[in-house]
């Protein structure tokens, strides 16, 4: 079954480029386009695609507000932006975005992101991960959350590595465990903390006081 995608961007040429790129993949299908955030909300609610690519800067309702309005739907949202809009990264993730990529990212990175978030995981580019950490560094140091007591010592280690943006294979290599074991730890952490994906886990790690930036 194909991954059904909606592309939302106010530039027709950009939408066309994304459509050509994704439709060329055997497991993907662009089912609709939207030229602004309000239209994106209507289209996503009507079609409930697997993934929506959401430009953050659009006239009227921007991508950030559109993402907020779509919270709770099964559609996974990847927010796209340029480097000059990095101040929106944290807000977009809190609004429910499952991924955040810059428009400068190579085509294969975008295609990978669509597959990753469609499978239920989250994805950030390394540069975006750094900017999220910098945003937390400017915030007051939070108190340690009691929810952390639900995790074992090993799971706390894994959560710290997730917050650094490491993938399951990278976590496995860091802790000298198998990829399967790392995946199991990640799954248990998400279940115990009632989190949707590793992006929410990373946010939780900072907000709960497990990790202090810097």
CATH topology of the largest domain: Rossmann fold
Strand content: 5-15%
Most strands sheet: 6 strands, parallel
Anisotropy-based shape: globular
Name the structural class.
alpha/beta
Q: Numbering strands along the chain, what is their spatial order in the largest sheet?
A: 2-1-3-4-5-6
- Name of the top-level CATH class of the largest domain: Alpha Beta
Put simply, the count of helices is 10
Give the domain tally: 2
Specify the helix fraction band: 40-55%
**What's the count of strands?**
6
Can you describe what's shown?
The chain has 2 domains: 3-135, Rossmann fold, CATH 3.40.50.2300; 141-207, Arc Repressor Mutant, subunit A (Orthogonal Bundle). It is built from 10 helices and 6 strands. The protein has helices at residues 12-23, 37-47, 63-69, 89-95, 107-118, 126-137, 153-163, 168-175, 179-193, 198-207, and strands at residues 3-8, 28-34, 51-55, 76-81, 99-102, 123-124. Strands 2-1-3-4-5-6 form a 6-stranded parallel β-sheet, sandwiched between helices. Strand 1 (3-8), helix 1 and strand 2 form a beta-alpha-beta unit. The N and C termini lie far apart (44 Å). The model has no long low-confidence stretch (mean pLDDT 86).
């Amino acid at each position: 079954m194909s991954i059904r995608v909606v592309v939302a961007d106010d530039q027709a040429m950009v939408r066309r480029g994304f459509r050509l790129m994704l439709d060329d993949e055997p497991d993907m299908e662009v089912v609709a386009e939207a030229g602004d955030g309000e239209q994106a909300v209507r289209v996503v609610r009507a079609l409930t695609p697997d993934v929506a690519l959401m430009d953050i800067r659009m006239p009227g309702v921007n991508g950030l507000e559109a993402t907020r309005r779509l919270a709770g739907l099964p559609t996974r949202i990847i927010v796209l932006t340029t480097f000059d809009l990095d101040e929106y990264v944290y807000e977009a993730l809190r609004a429910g975005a499952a991924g955040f990529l810059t428009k400068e990212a190579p085509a294969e990175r975008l295609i990978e992101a669509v597959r990753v978030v469609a499978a239920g995981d989250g994805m950030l580019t390394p540069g975006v991960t750094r900017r999220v950490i910098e945003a937390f560094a400017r915030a007051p140091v939070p108190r340690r959350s009691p929810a952390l007591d639900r995790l074992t010592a090993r799971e706390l280690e894994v959560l710290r590595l997730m917050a650094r943006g490491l993938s399951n294979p990278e976590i496995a290599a860091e802790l000298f465990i198998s990829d399967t074991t790392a995946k199991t730890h990640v799954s248990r952490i998400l279940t115990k903390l009632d989190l949707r994906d590793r992006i929410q886990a990373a946010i939780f790690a900072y907000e709960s006081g497990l990790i202090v930036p810097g």
